[in-house]
Amino acid sequence: MGDIEAPGSSASPSGLGVLMALLPSKEFSTSKKGMLLIGEVALSFIDFICFAASAASAFVTVPLIEFLGALFMLFAYSSKFNERFKGFLWPLMDFLRCVTASIIYFIVSIMAISNYRGGSSKAAGVFGFIATIIFALDFYKVFIELAEFLKQGGESQEEATQEESDDDSD
């Protein structure tokens, strides 16, 4: 009985507290980027399970890799990890991830539906087509951000506005 703590006590982090720290904030979750990334994670996981249960299990690595990539980007954007490490070209990495994911999902989904019989193979193909659409929407959104990023010469928006205000004060 000594293991049970009051809900407001802060003696040790509870499992729920750790889980809440890992989940994206409500503000990020309701943004367009947040919803796209959550959709990518969910669809990739569902597609992974469908492929694992089907005769097309040879393609199980595609949704697994895309699930892990989308999960990493969800963590990076929701925790503002991408803002702390400005040396990486985050928009370019995200763009390439989304483009390759949508192309590979499209090809694998066609193969799963046309070459394999069975409900789970067909379901994997259908969820793969839906994932293709979600990744395509994300790479379109990232393309617009990448174009703005490259127009600024690779500077973040904060750096560009800071330089403009420094020039105005002279």
Q: In terms of topology, how is this protein built?
A:
Layout: H1 15-22, H2 26-29, H3 32-53, H4 61-78, H5 81-84, H6 90-115, H7 119-151, H8 157-169
Helix pairs in contact: 3-4, 3-7, 4-6, 6-7
Backbone shape: elongated
Average pLDDT across residues?
Answer: 78
The first-to-last residue Cα distance is: 68 Å
Radius of gyration: 20 Å
User: How much of the residues is beta strand, in percent?
Assistant: under 5%
> Structural class, from helix and strand content?
mainly alpha
Number of helices: 8
Series of secondary-structure elements, N-terminal to C-terminal: HHHHHHHH
How can the largest sheet be summarized?
Answer: none
Number of strands: 0
Low-confidence stretches: none
Instruction: Report the helical percentage.
Output: over 70%
**Into how many domains do the coordinates divide?**
1
What does this structure look like?
By secondary structure, the chain is mainly α. The chain has one domain. The protein contains eight helices and no strands. The longest helix is centred in the last third of the chain and has 33 residues, at 119-151. One of its GO terms (cellular component) is membrane. It is a multi-pass membrane protein.
Keywords, separated by commas or semicolons:
single chain, mainly alpha, 8 helices
Short overview:
With 170 residues, this protein is mostly helical. It has 8 helices and no strands.
